[in-house]
Amino acid sequence: MKHPLIKLSQTQIDNIKLLNKDSRIKFNKISCLNCGSENHMNLFTNDRYGFNITKVLCNKCGFMFTNPMLTLNSAAFFYNTNLYRNMLHPRGVIHSSEADYMKESPSFNFIKSLDLKYQTVCDVGSGIGNGVRLFKSIGKEACGYEPSKLFTDLGKKRGLNIINGSADDVKGEYDLVLMDHVLEHLINPKKTIENLRKNVKKYLFIGVPASEDKFQSFQYSHAYYFSINTLCQIITKCGFKRINIKHESRSVNDYLSVLFEKIDEKEIYSYDYTHEVKKYKKIYYKYFIKSFIKKIIRDILKKINPNVEKKIVKIIDLSTLGY
Description:
323 residues, alpha/beta, 11 helices, 13 strands
């Protein structure tokens, strides 16, 4: 099925056309990162921008992800050139980053609300350093790792300890390691967390968009679409225990803030695979029916009066998908 498109600027439309033709962007078929199954159901064949990628649902465990997946080299090209940021922020990467810098951080507020004993903090995927700034403001020793050189330099200009690098480049151990709005972008988040475990002394914070009672908006920069169940199972397989969680319902993408603690013996989180799969198939088919009805109504109204069609179609919402 085709995913509904958001309103795009002409620059974004032109960039998407270039992306869809770019020979440097390559894909590989993958098995499910969570359960290893190769039995998947196709959900959408394009993202909200019109990029030709496919989102699937694992028929065994209910995990959702892009498949075929970007290759590692293609992903590196994608992120290191700020290509995806320019698409997400048509007004400009720097303009959007400057606006985000002084924003309140839900992840920071979540951690601050907990009775945790920690001093050293590492923010992986720190952007220009808003998280680093906030933790420094409460007396913590904080640094960040950021793959974008542009963002790294902007953070350094503010006097923040931002290192140009990814999760694989992290050096040293920290009481608290954060990955906020990061895990969903990675090609193999499980492997990344396994490698990062050596850098975690006590706590690992993960913040990701969530799929619970509706689908997340499908976009090319997100490789994986986590639920509470799939996220917790994957992270606990890497040697961590879930100790606190907050689920925020939002109009588009819900959000999960989860704190894990490093443990010596694995305690793998379990859930009902069959129920998870049934839940998301029900959401999908409900959305499919809505989309079909909407198309019929639009076709009829277009023939009668195109202006009326534009007004009426807004009444038929796509809430099951997150719009």
